[in-house]
Amino acid sequence: MNGKLFFDDKFDVEYVNMPIWDQLGKIQDSESAREVVKPAKFKAVNTVETDDGVKITVTPEECQKIKDVLLQLRTPYRSTVLRTLQTSKGMKNMLRLIR
């Protein structure tokens, strides 16, 4: 293994990196872990990596706003938007929308 995570879910095979939905969840989980992990060992997760290799900083509050937007979409549209969010252009557009 080369340290890269592999996903075998049929919805995730088209992505180069971890799906954005999962990355947003990791940022939210990281924030809640702050309360139980010792400060010396705590390393916050605050970036997502798009399929074009760009790392973008996202706050836990922004993660929740993005997820709220996605959950209001019908499933076919949601999958299209999620695919778009896998790109840096799509993620930056979404962040502009929610900020």
Secondary structure layout:
Elements lengths: L19 H14 L13 E3 L5 E3 L2 H12 L3 H11 L2 H11 L1
Antiparallel strand pairs: 1-2
Low-confidence stretches: 1-8
User: What is the residue-mean pLDDT, rounded to a whole number?
Assistant: 88
Radius of gyration: 14 Å
| Largest sheet data | 2 strands, antiparallel
Identify the strand order in the major beta sheet. 1-2
Distance between the termini: 39 Å
Sheet-strand content, in percent, reads 5-15%
How many β-strands, per DSSP? 2
- Number of folding domains? 1
Oligomerization status of the protein chains? single chain
Number of helices: 4
Query: What is the general shape?
Result: globular
Category from helices, strands and their pairing: mainly alpha
Helix content: 40-55%
Record keyword descriptors for this entry:
mainly alpha; two-stranded antiparallel ribbon; 99 residues; single chain; 2 strands; disordered N terminus
Concise overview:
The protein is mostly helical and 99 residues long. It has helices at residues 20-33, 60-71, 75-85, 88-98, and strands at 47-49, 55-57.
Provide structural commentary.
The protein has 99 residues and is mainly alpha-helical. The protein has one domain. The protein contains four helices and two strands. It has helices at residues 20-33, 60-71, 75-85, 88-98; strands spanning 47-49, 55-57. A two-stranded antiparallel sheet has the order 1-2. A hairpin with a 5-residue loop joins strand 1 (47-49) and strand 2 (55-57). The longest helix is centred in the first third of the chain and has 14 residues, at 20-33.
